[in-house]
């Protein structure tokens, strides 16, 4: 009896091959195979996208209509403030931009100094981000509500640093369609790269997952603020970061043992 043909490590199972392409794409993003080109990075970055949603919901709703992760929004808010629109703070937007840039600079230093592999870069970034978010959680828990100006400024700085760091590292990892923050190009790609538009295929499953992760994070943050204390979104973000750190650490140990290709610096 002839031997069965070998199956590639990252090939989907026969059951997975029977479902639509979009669902297969989503499946491979959430549960990548052992030999997947990006290894375990896609689900880990999806978790960080949820963190972004939680943190931006907190910042916008409690820190004076300012984003700590979405810098496009802050540039818009700056212009609106200078144009005389009410409800926005020039100082808060500038502070968030400055903190984000400083965090991105720190992320760049981390990317260029950590030479071992991509998993170690992500692990270091997630742990540093967890420290910053948990520091913000402690600040929020110890502050009166609404937050006094010094505490509000400290929260913007801590969270802006965390989000700048996360974005710099996600950019360096360069996993397609998983930037953890910017969705404009992701949503554009769903339409512009579709076969109906003449493209090669829009990877709609992964792109929709990225948008859904942000949506879930923001929704969870808004509901937590409505039904709980101001610090709850930061608590959820901190717990998710710690879980992501544990998952990244396990992936790093496996990659060190096996010499996995996904972990190699590019």
Automatic annotation (TrEMBL):
Q: Which InterPro entries match?
A: DUF1275
Report the domain of life of the source organism.
Bacteria
Q: Which UniProt keywords apply?
A: Membrane, Transmembrane, Transmembrane helix
Transmembrane spans: 44-68, 88-111, 120-142, 154-174, 208-225, 231-252
Protein name as catalogued: Uncharacterized membrane protein YoaK (UPF0700 family)
The species this protein belongs to is: Kitasatospora kifunensis
